[in-house]
Write a structure and sequence with these properties.
Structural class: alpha/beta
Number of strands: 10
Order of helices and strands: HEHEHEHHEEHEHEHEEHHEHH
CATH superfamily: Bacterial extracellular solute-binding protein, family 7
CATH topology: D-Maltodextrin-Binding Protein, domain 2
Largest sheet: 10 strands, mixed
Shape: globular
Number of helices: 12
Strand content: 15-25%
Number of domains: 1
Amino acid sequence: MKRWFISALALVMAVSFATTSYAGSHSKTLRITLQLPLKHHLGQNLLNFKKEVEAKSNGSLKIEIYPSAQLYKDKEVPQAVASGAIEMGVASITRFAGTIPAVDIFYVPFMFPSNAQVRKATAPGSPVRGPIDEAILKTGTRPLWWQAFGSAILLSKGGPIKTPVDMKGKKVRVFGKTLGDFVTAVGGAPTLMSGSKQFLAYQRGTVDAGMTGLTTIPSRKLYQVMDYVTLTYHADIEFLVLINEKVWQGLTDGQRAIMKTAGMRVEAELRNKMARLEQEALDFAKTKMKVVDLTDAERAQWKEATKSVVDTYEKRSGALGKHLVKIANEL
């Protein structure tokens, strides 16, 4: 009996050791670089992903988040992830515009004027999103999920911006080439700048105005350095959570399944609450700044003044861009 007990105990220990060794040999630590603070909704979205992945993988996957551009600025993220310098990263979709100009379809002025159209365009596998994901995958990075950021608005100080005429001669912070075309079309001078540099640029007067999303006003404390918010809602801002393709292929089937499921869940969760998050940010902005809500006539002026940007985008982005404009107009 004693001999049987010892044999059984030895077997249990052997199985336990083998299981631990197997899990250890397949365990991975995945670092994610983020431009925004963890308190911003993109940071909270990553925290939800981290919690689910670590719990469901039983510790074989560990997620480390580095917020507030600690490791890389927004423009550096695609290359850092593609090269394997970091396993994962969050970047504005326009950061791929240098190699895939068509990704800027979301920054063509007023291309997706309603939330319903945005949701159709950004849905996984949609005729708009599908080709973009495929093109990005060829760069060595895999879009794991998309993060809704909200609509683009304008910030200014010293006076409000209501019509295109008010932009003439102003230096304006932008975060993409097509958004720069928007500024140029109305007589302004675009200045491409990472989100993490906004506060100091506004504070020092490096630029006169800026484009951003409503939710950055409280998270980046932009209300401290700008006076006015103009609700142009002229573009849809999308961020991507990327993973190095070689790292992705190095994961087990089970690990990839866990990450896919978690990514799709937190993507849908964020998309569904985006309207509420923007309203909360707007309510906050109203207590700190002056908010300019455009009339239909004023918004029509912006659309008319910037309609040439569509042609510029199509010329720059080629066949894929023309295809995406056609699909977007059919939504």
